[in-house]
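Researcher: Here's a chain I'd like modeled. Treat it as a single chain, no partners, no ligands.
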Amino acid sequence: MLTKFETKSNRVKGLSFHSKRPWILASLHSGVIQLWDYRMGTLIDRFDEHDGPVRGVHFHKSQPLFVSGGDDYKIKVWNYKLHRCLFTLLGHLDYIRTVQFHHENPWIVSASDDQTIRIWNWQSRTCISVLTGHNHYVMCASFHPKEDLVVSASLDQTVRVWDIGALKKKTVSPADDILRLGQMNTDFFGGVDAVVKYVLEGHDRGVNWASFHPTLPLIVSGADDRQVKIWRMNDTKAWEVDTLRGHTNNVSCVLFHARQDIIVSNSEDKSIRVWDATKRTGLQAFRREHDRLWILSAHPEMNLLAAGHDNGMIVFKLERERPAFSVSGDSVFYVKDRFLRVYEYSIQKDTQLIPIRRPGSNSLNQGPRTLSYSPTENAVLVCSDMDGGSYELHILPKDSYGRGDTVQEAKRGSGGSALFVARNRFAVLESSNQVSVKNLKNEIVKKSILPLAVDAIFYAGTGNLLCRAEDRVVLFDLQQKIVHGDLQTSFVRYVVWSQDMESVALLSKHSIVIADKKLAHCCTLRETIRVKSGAWDDNGVFIYTTLTHIKYCLPNGDSGIIKTLDVPMYITKIFGSTIFCLDRDGKIRPIIVNSTEYVFKLSLLRKRYDKVMSMIRNSELCGQAMIAYLQQKGFPQVALYFVKDERTRFNLALESGNIEKALESAKKIDEKDHWYRLGVEALRQGNAGIVEYAYQRTKNFERLSFHYLITGNLDKLSKMVKIAEVKNDVMGQFHDSLYIGDVGERVKILENAGHLPLAYLTASVHGLHDTAERLAAELGENVPSLPKGRRASLLIPPSPVLCAGDWPLLMISKGIFEGGLDETVKDAHEDYQEAADADWGEALDIGEVENLQNGDISMVLEEENAEEENEEGGWDLEDLDLPPETPKTAATARSSVLIPPTPGMPVSQIWVQKSSLAAEHAAAGNFDTAMRLLSRQLGIRNFSPLKSLFQDIHMGSHTYLRAFSSAPVISVAVERGWSESASPNVRGPPALVFNFSQLEKKLKAGYKATTAGKFSEALGHFLAILHTIPLIVVETRREVDEVKELIIIVKEYVLGLQMELKRRELKDNPVRQQELAAYFTHCILQTPHLRLALLNAMTVCYKAQNLSTAATFARRLLETNPTAENQEKLARQILHVAEKNMKDAIDLNYDFRNPFVVCGATYVPIYRGQRDVTCPYCSSHFVPSQQGQLCTVCNLAEVGSDASGLLCSPTQIR
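Model: Modeled as a single isolated chain. Structure tokens:
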């Protein structure tokens, strides 16, 4: 049993396959009807209108309809395209058990617990016949597939066959049905439309199911007496043929298989049983653990069955349909109808060779599964699953393809897989880890132990095996007994090698893995629909089939559809555009396909641009998918040649930077948005002419004015002033006069706009005294005063960024796709040249001004034209007759191809490659590698305190130059220890902003703040040192030792100051206050600071009457020989008082006799001999529970993590 699909749901009571689509309806005990796609494994829809269980459901053969009947006494007809119930048929008085559409007439038959069977016309929506006669629940009723018969089964222990021939002869128009309602009622008990033909009695209990044979006059029934009975009928009578016994509980459903001579039944004993219909014996039983089975359904066209049970349903096949085949050279050997056949591709001839014995046992799936052929010895190995796996070795007759009488007896053996590994040697998988190599006499030559548990072996070249384990395949050499390759994959079902044995495709249920001959992974392809077969074509493309399509897979993993299939096919061989397939009936079918798409993509992938060009010229390659593919692969310029739609062409031209093509399309589209986008791209490319043209077309005068300003076209700027004046655009007028530097015009604009004070200020500042006086007179007393002590500076228009027209472009050779493809390219160039030479500015003045509403500008233009004409007037220049100019050859004609210089390696990249120091990686801007180095060397996990330092060090190792206004800022790396004598090709390490001397200054500042009692400030200084040290680089070994020493000094101060600050927070806990003061005295401090700490601890303990402890601090203080008299005096006094009463009022967690270190997180002593963990950076000690936490002293590293140690000098690496 091959399970194809399984669902988990409420109990399934009814099932129906769709005749064409891969759909199945399942009606549930909960009242829901589910529509599943069993091929994709997805729930498509659910219909939920019945109240209570739905026991019957059926698809219409051709209409988008299905019918359902439930325990709510209702029959509903649904349209699955509209996702709704069309109508409800009422009439039954009890639960409805089954419903079924007639294959031709618009009828539905229903069986009910009201002891009747009803036939309905679903077009007129009326009941046209009631079949009465059963005297218990009718469990099922169904039409005969061809004749005018209905079979029904009832709990009254009978099966009845009804003749509905009379009903068929009657008219079934809606009007007649209405007239017949009265007559139907009179016929209610014994109608003449349908008569009982036979009553089949023989079951001892209620009959649950009965069904017709699709072609023969047979009926099969199943009942609560646990028996399946076969009945035969003729025109006059019906009789029992045989009884099939084996079920151990009520038989729920039973039917004939449509395509095989077998009966399938299921039962509440949780089993499905398969019986031989001719021999009438049991073939096989499939049991479920916990689920009783209720319903069976067979696909009307395909070899599929479905069974519904307590917790869902399964769609399954009884036997594998893939024919066993093996391709060898120009032939394919395959098994069909118990014969071995050969098909020769070149002459397309099919020949029967020898009979293959039929399996002796009665179980299913025992036919040939795989073939292996040895061409030199003309021998075939046929493997099957018989007896747990066996093989037969057939030596084919040499003279002619045999007639059967001269065939040698086959040699047999057992084994999971068998295949030829050399011309006269074959390998057999005898157990999960042992392979035997045998000769043609079926004698073992040698045995090999496999390196892992294997369930199948495949051919992998002479002497090699591809061994399949559960989640991987390995390449095993039988001679050397070694593994050459290993690849992790999902469960591999088939293996297909390319002809040159360089590539292999591993086919799983839903994926394809392409690998090379050493099993190095190339690409993986996933499919939602099951993969069936595949073969390599001559180009190295893998062509494969799924249940529904022929597809291709390119070497880089790109795939696509070649053709849709109606029925599943198994590819055997590919010759050019012909694919030879085997179908499930064992027929060889040549399929001719169009390979243009995948050959085109392959040529593009392999950079065979000459082939691509010829294909574009000659092929009908089109479609959005191809354009999208070319865009995705970075060939928008190629996609241009496929596209007819101007908008798409425009987008592609912009993407590929082809400004001429974009201009052509923009002219045809002529929309504001497209002109704007063209202007943006032209500006990016520095094509001033097209920018100007695009701005003109969109009437974007502000942008146009600014464009003239940056290109220094002051003539056209002055025309823009006049256009702004005509358009009455005061702001634009003012801007343009500002760009030109025309002060008089600005004053006039301000005056006309009524801004007299501003006009007066502008005139007086720029020295236009006459105008200023006139304006002052107009303003009278309101004359604004100029600010005193300020010097006015003249606003001069900026010098243009680029005056010389378009930006210079590098001269490079034309791409393979430029020019050669498009015949119209030449004309396009001429068209563009014409457009570029035209003075687009003039075109603007005439074209745009004609459309202006506010006034007439013709006077402006006439004046300009007159000036132009009179330019040469006074010189009396005559026209000369000169010979026509010979075009000059360009200077670059000698080498039409300029190869741009290759960019060098950035300095920052050199720094990263040459260094293992985190500081130098940070300086190069590679923060992630710097972090990884610090994490590895010092166990640092928290980088937030280092963020600003990283940024400082990166910025500080570069300087920034500005070349000119339109160019971006240039960053220049600053090197450490640079000198003029150094070679320009050798890059030094980066200059760093942090150095050791800065840390020494910070240390002194920390000491000073500690002495002054500014503990928070001091803690800040010391932490800054700890955070900077990871980014310090020193030159000598001695300095490295000093840096390490500095870490220890600073760590002690940080710990001590943290404890002291904590102590000051604890006002109401005198015990903890004394402990923290005591621990502070055990930090390694400078002597003056130690004295202050001892004095502090002594005072705290004395106040708390802990005299003995206070006395120890007093003694330690005196041992330091304090320089301050008051310190010594106080210590001696406390010692004197304490000696009279050497007692402590409170016990402290403090033993000064036992050496200890203080935990940096919990501030408790860790005495010598106790377990502790340390910070890999600052080496602070912690109690074991702090393992894996962030160090509270340095706030950088993870406590207890592994680290290689501080690396701060190149000398450590050498």
